[in-house]
């Protein structure tokens, strides 16, 4: 069987969906299937054991609707897997599987507010999503939460959707800790800077905690210039000074070190399709606070403190609870290790292989 994969989310730094593509395709290739990965530009890191095909295009519609169908025929692909929420051609020449990780842009109010053409961006997203859902032979979601959202919001028939949980993030040897964090005690949020990450409320909650724990810093990773400017204004308004540290994008080894040295991970996200950051915390034996909504309860079980992400006092109270109670923090670490081990890439890949064969 020759399987074609949309690998555009794995062209740059491997985060989120990029890590998922790398882990899934690597596993499928090791099973003996022929894997062809389609990129729109030269990737930073190619996936081993696969054939990489570059369909040079800066236009997503040109890539999906023109170049991709031709390439699927040329390389005699038997099954096409659109790995990033959208991307199934209207005239796809082979059966297609679509993975929908989330529909966050339709769940978060004003999600497109940072786009210079917000209305057109939203319209484009909706059209591509609905067309891909219509054309796909089967849809996979990373959690039952996303499956139910598709059924309720987009009226997708339940029989067309299958949930396949992702595996836990792989173990990465920690690199060097950034100099400004050496010897520091800090709360970490490493999910990136995005409107859905709820960072304004996190900073407000940290300001309350900081009154009692003045030595602790809040560390936020990721890049987003426009949103960071707004967050820095909030930090100034709350008189937090240099107690909030923005690290920018971190490579895997450095991020591993930053997670490992945190005293607590606080991830009060407003919506997630799965939630890699909480599992990364469990894997590094760090206590985790996260949201009691979306997919997070499915992923964390009873291993984290779950809070209402819209209540600043609840977030602050949970942070103080962990910081003031070492015994509870230790108990959370033990539960986190057990929860981390429940998610396996081997199981994930095998479920996808069964689905490929079925289609």
Structural write-up:
The chain has 359 residues and is of the alpha/beta class. The chain has two domains: 2-167 and 344-358, Glycogen Phosphorylase B (Rossmann fold), CATH 3.40.50.2000; 179-340, Glycogen Phosphorylase B (Rossmann fold), CATH 3.40.50. It has 13 helices and 13 strands. The strands form two sheets. Strands 3-2-1-4-5-6-7 form a seven-stranded parallel β-sheet, sandwiched between helices. It has a six-stranded parallel β-sheet with strand order 10-9-8-11-12-13, sandwiched between helices. α6 crosses α11. The radius of gyration is 21 Å and the shape is globular.
Question: Short description, anyone?
Answer:
The protein is α/β, with parallel strands linked by helices and 359 residues long. Helices cover 42% and strands 16% of the residues. Helix 1 crosses helix 13 and helix 9 packs across helix 12.
So, CATH architecture of the largest domain? Answer: 3-Layer(aba) Sandwich
> What is the class of the largest domain in the CATH system?
Alpha Beta
Arithmetic mean of pLDDT? 93
CATH superfamily caption of the largest domain: Glycogen Phosphorylase B
Cα-atom radius of gyration: 21 Å
Number of helices: 13
How far apart the termini lie comes to 12 Å
């Amino acid at each position: 069987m020759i399987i074609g994969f949309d690998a555009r989310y794995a062209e740059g730094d491997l985060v989120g969906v990029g890590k998922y593509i790398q882990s899934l395709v690597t596993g499928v290739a090791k099973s003996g299937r022929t894997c062809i990965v389609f990129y729109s530009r030269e990737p930073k890191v190619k996936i081993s054991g696969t054939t990489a095909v570059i369909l040079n295009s800066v236009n997503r519609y040109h890539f999906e609707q023109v170049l991709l169908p031709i390439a699927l025929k040329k390389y005699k692909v038997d099954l096409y897997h659109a790995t990033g929420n959208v991307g199934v051609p209207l005239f796809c020449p082979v059966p297609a599987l679509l993975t929908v990780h989330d529909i966050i842009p339709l769940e978060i109010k004003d999600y497109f507010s940072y786009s210079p053409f917000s209305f057109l961006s939203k319209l484009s997203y909706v059209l591509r999503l609905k067309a891909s859902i219509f054309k796909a032979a089967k849809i996979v979601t990373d959690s039952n939460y996303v499956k139910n959202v598709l059924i309720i919001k987009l009226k997708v028939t339940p029989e067309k959707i299958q949930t396949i949980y992702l595996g836990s993030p792989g173990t990465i040897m920690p690199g060097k800790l950034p100099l400004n964090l050496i010897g520091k005690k800090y709360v970490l949020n490493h999910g990136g800077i995005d409107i859905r990450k709820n960072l304004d409320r996190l900073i407000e909650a940290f300001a309350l905690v900081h009154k009692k724990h003045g030595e602790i810093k809040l560390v936020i990773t990721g890049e987003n210039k426009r949103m960071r400017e707004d967050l820095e204004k909030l930090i100034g308004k709350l008189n937090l000074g240099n107690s909030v540290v923005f690290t920018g994008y971190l490579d895997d080894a450095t991020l591993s070190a930053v997670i490992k040295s945190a005293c607590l991970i606080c991830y009060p996200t407003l919506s997630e399709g799965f939630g890699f950051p909480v599992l990364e915390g469990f894997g590094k034996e760090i206590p985790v606070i996260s949201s009691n909504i979306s997919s997070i309860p499915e992923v964390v079980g009873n291993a984290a403190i779950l809070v209402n992400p819209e209540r600043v006092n609840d977030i602050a109270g949970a942070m103080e609870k962990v910081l003031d109670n070492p015994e509870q923090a230790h108990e959370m670490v033990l539960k986190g290790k057990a929860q981390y081990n429940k998610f396996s890439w081997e199981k994930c890949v095998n479920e996808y292989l069964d689905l490929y064969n079925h289609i």
